[in-house]
């Protein structure tokens, strides 16, 4: 790599951490509290990555905006309670995630960031729980942006770091991540271990099977 600054943006849920158990549990509690039929696991995981209002609109399209808002609030409360109870175990890092972050962080010209549908509170708690505070120079969350696949998160991360689109990569496990990368004009790297099927990662520059494959995938994009 040259001395040119590069920016590597990670999605969080389904990419860096396996939070599906907590997500399904919180969604189940939220729908149950309103005596609504709980969506099946596949449906719940299909919306991971979207901002919560968009997610609830997809999971409960027949419900009023008021009910959807109540579902959002119920989910937040249930997820927060679960996180307080379980700590880092709420969302364990995938195998190889920490090593990949540390390896990239040690390259002076590579900047790391996050672009996630999580809230600021949720992301900050996760980063603290896994002792990752020093690694990410830009953190883009659902509180401050339109939902994925709108390119706002990537555009803002690039603006904050001064890195060009050609030198930015988005890494994620869902169609929303790849669509967001395309909308922002940056390459996307899909990961096979997340919540969307491999077939949904259309438009990815490549798809990796393990974090060990990430450095070579980045080299292939940037050479």
Shape: globular
Oligomer: single chain
Give the uncertain stretches in residue-range form: none
Strand content: 5-15%
Alpha-carbon distance between the two ends? 8 Å
Strand order of the largest sheet: 3-2-1-4-5-6
Please count the beta strands (DSSP E, at least 2 residues each).
6
Overall pLDDT level: 95
Helix-and-strand structural type: alpha/beta
CATH class of the largest domain: Alpha Beta
Relevant CATH superfamily of the largest domain: HAD superfamily/HAD-like
- How many distinct domains? 2
CATH topology heading of the largest domain: Rossmann fold
> Main β-sheet, in a few words?
6 strands, parallel
H and E string: EHHHHHEHEHEHEEH
The name of the CATH architecture of the largest domain is 3-Layer(aba) Sandwich
- Number of DSSP helical runs: 9
**If you compute it from the alpha carbons, what radius of gyration comes out, rounded to the nearest whole angstrom?**
17 Å
Q: Into which percent range does the helicity of residues fall?
A: 40-55%
């Amino acid at each position: 790599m040259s001395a040119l600054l590069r920016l590597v943006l990670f999605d969080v849920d389904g990419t860096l951490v396996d939070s599906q158990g907590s997500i399904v549990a919180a969604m189940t509690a939220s729908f149950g509290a309103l005596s609504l039929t709980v969506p099946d696991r596949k449906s719940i995981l299909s919306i991971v990555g979207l901002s919560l209002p968009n997610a609830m609109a997809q999971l409960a399209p027949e419900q009023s905006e008021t009910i959807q808002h109540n579902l959002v609030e119920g989910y937040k409360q249930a997820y927060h309670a679960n996180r307080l109870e379980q700590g880092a175990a709420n969302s364990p890092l995938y195998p190889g995630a920490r090593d990949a972050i540390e390896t990239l962080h040690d390259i002076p010209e590579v900047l790391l960031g996050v672009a996630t549908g999580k809230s600021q509170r949720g992301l900050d708690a996760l980063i603290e729980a896994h002792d990752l505070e020093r690694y990410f120079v830009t953190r883009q969350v659902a509180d401050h942006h339109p939902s994925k696949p709108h390119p706002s998160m990537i555009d803002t991360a690039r603006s904050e770091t001064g890195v060009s689109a050609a030198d930015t990569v988005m890494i994620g496990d869902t169609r929303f991540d790849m669509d967001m990368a395309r909308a922002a004009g940056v390459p996307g790297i899909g990961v096979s271990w997340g919540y969307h099927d491999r077939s949904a990662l259309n438009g990815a520059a490549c798809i990796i099977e393990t974090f060990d494959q990430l450095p070579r995938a980045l080299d292939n994009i940037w050479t």
